[in-house]
Amino acid sequence: MKRFAALCAMAVACSSLTFLPTSQAEERPQTVAGCTKPTSKLRVPDTVKQPKSFDKKRATTMTITTNCGVITIAMNPAAPQTVTNMSALARAKYFDKTFCHRLTTELLYVLQCGDPSAQKNGSPGSWTGYKDENLPKGKGVTYPAGTVAMANSGPKTNGSQFFLVYKDSALPAKYSIWGKITSGLPLLLELEKVGAYEVDEASGKAYYATDGIPIQPVEIKTVTVR
After folding, report:
1. pTM (2 decimals)?
2. Is residue 169 situated within a structural domain?
3. How many whole angstroms separate alpha carbon 205 and alpha carbon 56?
């Protein structure tokens, strides 16, 4: 029930968020200037044919057009299978009309996308997890601002979910790095200012969370590669 209510708000089935009374709620905005109202709906992940090998001539640029602006990614040749798979999903319009379902604003700083169901477990129908690539080496800031990497639930469990790093983050070195943000980083920083939320099960009201659903809904309208 808690998750359903949260997704309801994110998918714009709910007109606005009502926060539990806090001084913080009174001071912070709930929208980012320039963002338009989303029209997409959550859906069961599509079935897309999984590439068996990586493309010999791979795409180099991914363009994510959202309701808040455009994010451009330079795709990293050091992660050939990941780039191939993400390109295949983009060409199949797998990411079109979906939501970025997670925003973290403490310790790690990422916006996570790529799950049409927005329930943190979506992956293309019939896909099996694929290998990790281009993992960072060393310690400290393993995922600097601008990094684009795969989300996973363990080794070789990559699917369609990915995250955009908007501030230097010290994550465990187990998430394939497949791109770098070349434009759109200021947008992510604006989303951070508005923050994330979860929903209190008892009251049905939202509360600010450092790891939750973006308060400003982020709708991916289209994803293209070239």
Report:
1. 0.92
2. yes
3. 50
